[in-house]
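QA checklist item 7 of 12: single-chain prediction sanity check.
[x] sequence parsed
[x] length recorded as 665
[x] structure emitted
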Amino acid sequence: MKFNLKGKIIFSREISEDIKKDIEEVLKNSRDIFLKGVPKGKEDEAAKIIDYDFQGNELLLHIDSGTYARAHEAIIRLKKPIIEKIGKKHKIGIRGILIENYDINIPVGYNIVMSMNLQEIESLSKKLQELPLMKLREMKLQELPLMKLREMKLPDMKLQEIESQYKKLREMKLPDMKLQEIISQYKKLQEIELLYKKLQEIESLSKKLQEIESLSKKLQEIESQYKKLQEIESLSKKLQEIESQYKKLQEIESQYKKLQEIESQYKKLQDTKVQDTEALELKFTFGDICERELKRNIIDRTIKFVKTHLESEKEKDLTFDVCAIEPGTIVSEYKRKRAITFKEDPTDVAEKLGWVRRFIGKGQWFYTPPMTKLFRTFEELIMEECIDKIGFDECLFPKLIPLEVMYKMRYLEGLPEGMYYVCPPKRDPLMFEEFVNEMMIKKEIPIEKLRGLLRDPGYVLAPAQCEPFYQFFDHQLIDVDKPIKFVDKSGWTYRWEGGGAKGLDRVNEFLRIECVEMGSPEFVERVRDDTLKYAEKLAEKLDLEYWTEVGDDPFYLEGRKKEDRNIEFPEVPKYEMRLWLPHIKDERKGVAVTSANVHGTHFVEGFGIKDYRGRKVWSGCTGYGISRWVVGFLAQYGFNYDDWPEMIKKKIKKLPEIPKVINWP
């Protein structure tokens, strides 16, 4: 993909020459800022500043990029280092960011585009224009060559040189003397050499001239034969060289054949019509995109939307094949009976009031007493109004899950990038002494040294919370007449959201109540439906506006394209209940607070769980996201305790105060 952006950063006052110099210093180092998080080997696709200029209180930017560190992400990344550089020093702030013109080119497979008619392209354009906040200016297909044939390079060795070497080697003649004869003569010469030595001994002992003369003649003969031996040895070496050259000749012949094949293919490519080797790309242009829209990932969601439609030939997620009702279909909803007066982002207000504070880790928060009290209140309400009415038995599930469990769940196949992996240390204090000493001296953590002291990843932090339930029943025989209903609310759940972590509603560490059931298919579906029904009733009692829809990402199918086992699936694998977020003005947006799933035989098959009489066994789970219930509640009611419903106030009685700190909140 290609991104070409023209936009600006707007400052609180006019930019002086001194401020310009400091901003330019940041822009000169922008390459390091843009390369963060870019995979090795993909550096060329990272964002680059093509040009910039200053006008009044505005920094005008022209940014180009490929797929990684996209241009719209790059302009956002510049904000923090610029304000750190000039904010305090020059007492200037940033009012906002505006993208005036943004060209995005998405490569499209030739076959896909050729299969689309003009009406389909126009339909896609219309859908894009209807997206909230998308100020689409134009969209069109442009032709691009897939490859420049004339720039295609053959291997360094030229055909003429290879042919020349080949002819020379073919003209080389081996000696007439056969190798066996040479070896035979060589052995005879060795025998002669022994005789020669004996004669030398005789010569040293002999005093008679006649004997010396006689021996002298024999020595001359031996010397003559010795010279022949040396010649034979020289021939032997030449033979070895010839054999080596012969092997090289065979290699050259092999290369020669490959080159002939390449040359043949090259000629075919030269004769091929250009249109057969062209790819197409879809270009669409946006204008007047403000900072708020950028932070809400409007651009990336639009790209995903376009690619989803264009890549219709690709396999869809397994969910779409399994589900009898189209994912996204709303099956029930409730409109609140009171007027909404609070219309701010609950995350922003919670931070200002000191109810939460950002923790140093990405997607983590420190929840102070008022927020914690609200968390516990919702936990109690969900237990009383939903879970206890169905009759779940509470358990304490482990949160450190061995990789083999995740493998059996097929979670490693579906969403391997969404988990925190845990590496146990090598339990040897002596090995850590050097690490500790270096840390104490340098006053920094020597990460590379620490990496060498860790074992391979062996665990993950629980990303779904229900994992231990299936391992508990691994290869067990159950009785579907005595079904199981367990619930766990013992701790955090962990998912790596990467760049998607934002606010209080999408975090990497969150609290939830997890209900898991196992029994006959009828029992599992009935219990799943009850967990959802009571959640809806609770929302209605609190007069919280919600809707329930068919989920498009059951956690056990997420990212999966196919199923190679004979698995039974329910007609609807997942229902998702969402609380309305009124502070998002331009679209009806909700936060998912309850996820109710039926797995069919997916997990019982993977863990070898069976009924002792051979009857069907299914499993299901429902997660109540405490963190998200609280966010949805605050979004609709605000932070004024007196405005809250009596059901909540009766539980809380009195809100605790925030910690007394001089310079916070």
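[x] summary fact logged: The chain has a mean pLDDT of 83.
[ ] second reviewer sign-off
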